[in-house]
Design goal:
Length: 389
């Protein structure tokens, strides 16, 4: 795959190639099953569907959703079956009119040069695909032959329209564009703009843009209502603080998408220890219109509790080189440790907020001049000690 060939660094995941990345094994309790896999596939199995006929009501979408092998088999069989069906019709017309028997020169058949079922099958192919080699043709002798000719042309056009449209839609599916939309392998939680924030990084490897791109986030967890009802997959929307200040994002270079952990956030009461104990999953959905095709595409990924790094932030990836902004994708998923409160956002607000935390950090961390003075006193004290002591 791309990451093994050295074309794509291991610090981030392609949305459709995450199956190549070995997930870390955690000891202790069993890992929570993902609702959305790292490559964006929804981990939901539909069982006990009794009304299978609903899928046949939308045949075109059903054909597009099938696997390529099944689609190609249906594509081939649809033409073969139609050729055989109308070959039987042409053979019956020739048999009923007596065209299969040897006649004189003055005999006019319904279709010329049909002597067996093989010749009727070849004529059926010539009619439906409009080859017309010239040896076999319909005459004015039989009205039924003219009617069958019209019906086969109409049926052939319908099969061509449906099957070729299906092949085109499968080839031009928008999820292929999502191959080059990338998410950071881990999410981070740290202080940003004096607020405790949950952050992920996303980017686009192609130069063609995603128009009107939007990002949505949801927290999926098990919850219980006041009435005692257990909701195994409770989906809670969380507010996004997009870097451009609007609902859409301008995805030209990698962007850090930020969620401020405030009172309305489902992460408000979670500390680093609680984050590892609770089985939560944060789903990120990127939607937009492909600039080159105009088709809407969507890329998805998710982050489990162990994939959320507390007290870290992403390193910069953009530098200016000779009047051009260069993006170093080798640093896409890199993060560094930064001072971050080791408590929940709720506890932080109760203790005075970020200002109180920064003041505590300022007093607890000695200044460089103080550290130098302490070091010089320690060296002087050691030099005054007698060697015999």
């Amino acid at each position: 795959m791309l990451s093994r060939k050295g074309l794509v660094p291991d610090d981030y995941l392609l949305t459709r190639l995450a199956e190549d990345v070995q997930q870390p094994k955690f000891k202790g309790k069993a890992r929570k099953a993902r609702f959305v896999a790292k490559n964006g596939i929804c981990n939901v199995a539909h069982t006990n569907i009794r009304e299978q006929g609903r899928f046949l009501q939308d045949v075109f979408t059903t054909l597009v959703d099938l696997k390529w092998l099944h689609t190609l088999i249906i594509f081939t069989m649809s033409f073969l079956c139609s050729w055989l069906l109308f070959a039987m019709a042409w053979w019956l017309i020739a048999f009923a009119h007596g065209d299969l028997d040897q006649k004189g020169d003055d005999f006019v058949p319904c279709v010329t040069d049909i002597h067996s079922f093989s010749s009727a099958f070849l004529f059926s192919i010539e009619v439906q695909v409009t080859i017309g080699f010239g040896g076999r043709m319909v005459t004015e002798e039989c009205l039924s032959a003219i009617v069958v000719l019209i019906i086969q042309n109409i049926v052939g056009l319908l099969i061509n329209a449906i099957m070729l449209g299906c092949i085109f839609m499968k080839t031009a599916q928008a999820n292929r564009r999502a191959e080059t939309l990338i998410f950071s392998k881990h999410a981070v939680i740290s202080i940003r703009n004096n607020r405790l924030c949950f952050m992920i990084r996303l980017g686009d490897l192609r130069k063609s843009m995603i128009i009107s791109a939007t990002v949505r986030m949801q927290v999926v967890r098990r919850s219980t209502t006041p009435e005692g009802e257990v909701v195994p997959l409770d989906q809670i929307d969380i507010h996004m603080d997009n870097p451009v200040g609007t609902n859409g994002i301008f995805l030209v270079a990698p962007l850090i998408i930020c969620h401020i952990i405030n009172k309305d956030s489902p992460l408000y009461e979670l500390s680093p220890a609680d984050l590892q104990k609770n089985d939560i999953e944060v789903i990120v959905v990127l939607e937009g219109v492909v600039e080159t095709t105009g088709i809407t595409t969507q890329a998805r990924t998710s982050y489990l509790s162990e994939e959320i790094l507390w007290g870290q932030r992403f390193v910069p990836t953009i530098t200016e080189e000779e009047g051009t902004y260069a993006v170093d994708y080798s640093k896409f998923g890199n993060a560094i440790r930064v001072p971050t409160p080791s408590c929940s956002a709720k506890k932080l607000d109760e203790d005075g907020g970020i200002a109180r935390f920064k003041l505590h950090e300022l007093h607890s961390t000695p200044r460089p001049s103080v550290r130098r003075r302490q070091l010089s006193l320690r060296i002087k004290r050691q030099s005054t000690i007698s060697p015999l002591a």
